[in-house]
Amino acid sequence: MRQLVLTAFLLGSLAMASASDVDECASNNGGCAHTCTNSVGSFSCSCRAGYVLNADGLACDENPGLEPASNFGDYQGYRIWSSDRHQRLSYSDARDVCRINGGTLVMIKDSAKQTFIVDHLKKESTQGGRARRFWIGLDDLNDENVFLWNDGTPLGAFDSFQSTAPHTIRDCVTLSKKARRAPRWDIKPCTNSYSYICQMDFDACLSNPCDVNAVCTDNPAPALDATCTCKAGYEGDGTSCSDIDACLSTSCDVNAVCTDNPAPALDATCNCNAGYEGDGTSCSDIDECASNNGGCAHTCTNNVGSFSCSCRAGYVLNNDGFACDDDNECSRNNGGCQRVCTNTEGSFICSCNGQEELNADGFSCDGKLGLPLPRRLCVCSCFAISLRD
User: Fold this and answer.
1) For residue 339, with 0-12 CB atoms within 10 Å meaning exposed, 13-18 middle and 19 or more buried, which class applies?
2) Averaged in consecutive runs of 10 residues, what is the pLDDT profile of the chain (389 residues)?
3) Both 214 and 139 in a single domain?
4) Would residue 15 count as lying in a domain?
5) Same domain, 262 and 142
6) Which domain holds residue 348?
7) Are residues 340 and 320 in the same domain?
8) 360: which residues sit within 8 A by CB, 6+ positions away?
9) pTM score, whole prediction
10) Is residue 158 a part of any domain in this protein?
């Protein structure tokens, strides 16, 4: 009896829980970007192939890092690869995976390309078996019975459709291959899940053919090369780029220095030389003497692009080029004095010894050295004057 009561209680509890569960997916898809899955008391979001769930648990981000299950190699500028036989997707999901990885579902526009693909599929079959049906990039989703390739171009003269292939509204095309049978295209509902084959334009820029200061642009298939274009401020053929020297086309003043501004700048800067002023394209001499005498103690002389200081007689210019120091003339050849030279501020004086006298030239002396000058005698002549009545 106790077991029956417990069982009834549990069943009732489960029924109540089921009855009270809220289906979050019923409103706005639960906020999920792709698929919302309701569960008892909760829900979860998931993403279609080629996408990964964002950290917010709702959004789906493109996942371009899918590794191809089989890389067929390069064909006329395209890299072709197929999915694993266990990875089967709807047409739209398969197309998204190819797009996210930088390509499209494979577009088979000639027999040579189809032979290349089928040969690789046959090799895979002999090495462990692979899927036998693959989505290719052809559909009539936009206009019934008007089949377009994924790049928007119409179906051309080449095709491998079977005349008895069933046709429904808005169909997509598969490539199938079977042993000892020619490859064929079949029209299938786009919601079916099959393996798929992608093609990606071979990116010639991956080999870094351009200069570090250039932009590499892959040339569309069937081209196998890329175009290199130097960035703004650089010149060259793209494989080698150098900074454009704007000074070659900039008119700076003859008394200015031109400095090229680094790329991407396309101009240069003109700066007047020391001693000149202006905007660099026009420079004029600065009269340094006009302000505070140029810092000179005595005389300031302005020169073109410069100036110089000089001193009055009796002074010599200091090593700083501005101050003036007294010139001790007596230190050189006794100032030119014959006997005694006495230095004074800005000048000097010559003097003599003993009975000598300084001559009018201010330098030489006359007389007997060391003796006092002799007394000079005055000779007078006497005469009488007679006064008569």
Assistant:
1) middle
2) 41 50 91 90 81 86 58 79 82 92 91 91 64 91 91 93 67 83 89 92 86 93 88 95 94 96 94 94 92 93 90 92 92 93 91 91 82 47 45
3) no
4) no
5) no
6) 329-366
7) no
8) none
9) 0.48
10) yes
